[in-house]
Write a structure and sequence with these properties.
This protein is mainly alpha-helical and about 160 residues long. It is built from 7 helices and no strands. It is about 55% helix and about 0% strand.
Length: about 160
């Protein structure tokens, strides 16, 4: 009886492992990305106060000016894995100069979207996705201000898909 029970749990563990492996493969396919596509909005009418994020952010982490940062190495020069995770959450958007850094933010987000279009467990876990979407929506005014139509299309597509 004990051996039969052990075999049952072993087969259940194999099934769970196989399902997880197949899910990871499926999330990396183009078929998965195509299945998420839907009608894109043409305009965003929701511009909330970006100060809503202040309770979530440790303001000592990101006290930098985007005008002094090299955009081409922004996503590659990390001091630690925690810093990379914090940058990928985009909560730092609340701490920047909201008048002058709109174009730089668009470039940084464009580079991020090009690098992370496919599923990556590190950047696409549920907590990171929710933080990123929250930060992007709460800071949509500076992200989409003076943006060209192509960037808006890519931006809305990344929010939906």
């Amino acid at each position: 009886m004990l051996n039969l029970k052990a075999n049952y749990f072993y087969l259940k563990a194999v099934k769970v492992t196989l399902v997880r492996f197949l899910k990871r493969l499926y999330f990396k396919t183009n078929y998965y990305n195509q299945s998420l596509k839907t009608k894109l909005p043409e305009q965003l009418y929701f511009y909330p106060n970006p100060l809503l994020l202040t309770s979530f952010i440790n303001q000592k982490l990101f006290t930098f000016k985007l005008s002094q940062i090299n955009i081409s190495t922004f996503w590659t020069d990390f001091e630690s894995a925690k810093e990379e995770k914090d940058l990928n959450s985009f909560f730092w958007l609340n701490l920047i100069n909201r008048k002058n850094d709109g174009l730089i933010i668009q470039q940084i987000i464009s580079i991020w979207m090009k690098n992370n279009i496919k599923y990556n467990k590190k950047n696409w876990d549920n907590l990171n996705i929710s933080k990123r979407i929250l930060a992007w929506i709460l800071n949509a005014d500076i992200i989409l201000n003076n943006a060209d139509k192509n960037f808006k299309l890519i931006f809305f597509n990344s929010l939906i898909v």
